[in-house]
Amino acid sequence: MLRNILKININNELDVVLAYKRAIQLSERLGVALGNQTKFATAVSEICRNVVEYVGSGIIHFNFLEEAGVNFLEAVISDRGRGIGNLDLILKQTNKFGNSRGSGIINSKKLVDQFHIETESEKGTKVILRRKIPAKATLVTKAVLDQWTYEFEQETNISPYAELKKQNMQLLELLEQLRIRNLEAEQQLQEIKRLNIKLQQSNTEVSKLLDERNEKNRLLQKINDELDAFAHTVSHDLRAPLQNIDGISAALETSILSNQADEVNVLLPMLREQTDKMDKLITGILTYSLAGHHDIQRRFVEMNTLLQQVIASLKLPPGFHVEVQSDLPNLYTQAIYMEQVLGNLIGNAVKYHDAPEQGNITINYERHPDRLLFSVEDNGPGIGDEYQPQIFNMFERGINNGLAGSTGLGLSIVKKIVTEKGGNVWVESNGRGSRFLFTWPADDLVKDNEE
């Protein structure tokens, strides 16, 4: 359905201004948004100005058009000029700007919803411009169109200057709205960036917390596994002397009832030996469980004096010799920890020596920038390669599994204390002799001017 609204003859610039104004008025009355009003009116004025500039005269018809359920405000601008000979070339130049020939056509095409142009040599050109009308627009009836025509006829003469000024004011208003929207968009982008940064920080913190939780879970699982192994091994090692005590007690009871005094005298030392073994085992387990966990204050320790006390407490066999480096350092540390470490290492070297009358132990020290290195070296039977990786485990007795008085906890206590202090402990043995080395934090070293 097509309804003609009004017609304007285009002969001069004043008519171009009038066409622009009518385009604004009609699109406004039909409910077109302000920005689209200006776009449609600008497209109309571009084509009308082409008519005045290149042909001299023409006609513009404003129509109300309904097509496929969509309403349009239509402007049909026609002239009787010579036509546009290079129209196809002009239409292909989609990025044409400026005031060069053909720019008005390209610019107008960009400003409307539908654009159509027909041209024929010596018969003129017709351009159709359409802008969609919102569905909620005023119902356009013949009475409404007649009223609009009457109102347009009653208007006073148009001042080109006033209309151009009005157009410029409208454009400035649109530019200001666009500037405000750009500022709002920039603020929104900045806020989005801020939120993204905050989200990334939160993700990083969450990831860090998850890593910490996983690490704690891993350590907890390791502790649980060690606890299970500890409980299993303790129950196994405690059961053996208990079974021996039970068996010896039964035999002892039978001997007493039978008045076999000689047999009783044989069994009693065996009973004491088993109870002593069990006492040492329980004491060793307690020492291991507490190793490195005491809240012990550090104090000034003269290493040479401490070593002499440790050696004296071990009651060395005749002929057994211990050499100590003369310039051992002074430490500000937990004396009981160092005493337990050195006591176990020296005690093992004495206990497991196969020729104690020729036994020799050498204790040395090296100072490094980040750690202190101590070593306890003996000339004993040595430790085979197959035993070295496991001798620091709990209840591991290696080749000395059957040695009386051995609980298999000494080296595990050493490892636990040294590890708690942030150091390492290891063994070197190739053939005869063993060399145990352990590190201690350099922060515990007393400087010469601090003594």
Task: Provide a short characterization of the protein structure.
InterPro entries: BphY/WalK/GraS-like, HATPase_C_sf, HATPase_dom, His_kinase_dom, HisK_dim/P_dom, HisK_dim/P_sf, Sig_transdc_His_kin-like_C. Keywords: ATP-binding, Coiled coil, Kinase, Nucleotide-binding, Phosphoprotein, Transferase, Two-component regulatory system. Residues 401-405 have low confidence and may be disordered.
Task: Describe, in plain words, how this protein is organized in 3D.
It catalyses: ATP + protein L-histidine = ADP + protein N-phospho-L-histidine. This is histidine kinase. This protein is α+β, with helices and mostly antiparallel strands and 451 residues long. It folds into three domains: 2-158, Histidine kinase-like ATPase, C-terminal domain (Heat Shock Protein 90, 2-Layer Sandwich), CATH 3.30.565.10; 161-290; 297-450, Heat Shock Protein 90 (2-Layer Sandwich). It is 52% helix and 19% strand. It contains ten helices and twelve strands. A hairpin with a 5-residue loop joins β11 (425-428) and β12 (434-441). The longest helix is centred in the middle third of the chain and has 98 residues, at 160-257. The protein is rod-shaped and about 145 Å long. The N and C termini lie far apart (110 Å). Mean pLDDT is 83; it is low at 401-405.
